[in-house]
Amino acid sequence: MEASARCPSTHPHHAPKMPHHRVRFSSTNTVYPLPPPLRSRSSSPTSDSAEPEQSEALPSTIMPFPFLSPYEHRRWHLNNEKSSPSSSWSPPTVTLSTTMPPPRPLSGGVNDLISLPDSGVPYLVYDLSLHPSTISTTLHKIPSSRLREPAIYPPRLSVTLVHPNLPWSFTILARPGSPYAYVSIADIFAFLYAALRINATANEFVGLPTDDLMRRVAMAYRRRYERLWRRDSPATAAAAQQEQAEGLKRVDFLLGSTRFLGIAPIPGRADVWQLQTT
Known about the structure:
The protein is 19% helix and 17% strand. It has helices at 144-147, 185-196, 202-206, 211-229, 234-246, and strands at residues 54-58, 67-68, 75-76, 82-83, 109-110, 124-125, 136-137, 142-143, 152-153, 158-162, 168-173, 260-266, 269-277. Helix 4 runs antiparallel to helix 5 (234-246). Residues 124-265 form the DUF6699 domain. InterPro entries: DUF6699. Residues 1-63, 79-100 are annotated as: Disordered.
């Protein structure tokens, strides 16, 4: 289904103060497959009836990167092909390091690789609106074995993440039959990609508490597909049309703050961690 949503009126006898927020809604979830030899147990479930604070579990996967490439100024298409930099998009400047942080000791905590350093510059550079194969690093090299480390110490069978802008909580489960019985760093990224590609429903959109939030979510949706139109390429034009037609997605509720910063513990909630983005 495709539709446009109107902001709710602040008074029953007055028209809405804000114009229509033109967004589309689709019942078909599109998750671009992770490259082989990833092993995926099933496709992502739909969520037409998701409610706030609902916890969901999606299949976990392992990304087969021999090394993550050093961070550079670049753009990625949805078909995962690298293109030249765009003057309309300026990623943050970072300094490459030649050393890698050691894994977090078993005394407890988030793996240092996905914990925001004191410098404020994350070790992994990833836009959550893009495919996980676009992950790069501010370190010299990161072997794939680092991504298979536990995301949380001591290792856990499940990890629940929340974000202040999202009305959903997400539970990542360790994969049955895996040689390691815990949630890995790779599992975190594969899950977040699949979970945030799920289509948002009209009820979730109009259920936002303010007109301003509706406007900002609609703007994030528009910018997500419009950035592809800025490329002079038939392939990217087709990708932009496809993204627009697929409609509003959960990633748009991040309001454009899709750059991954890390995962942090939440005081008083021992089994829940906060996803940090900017």
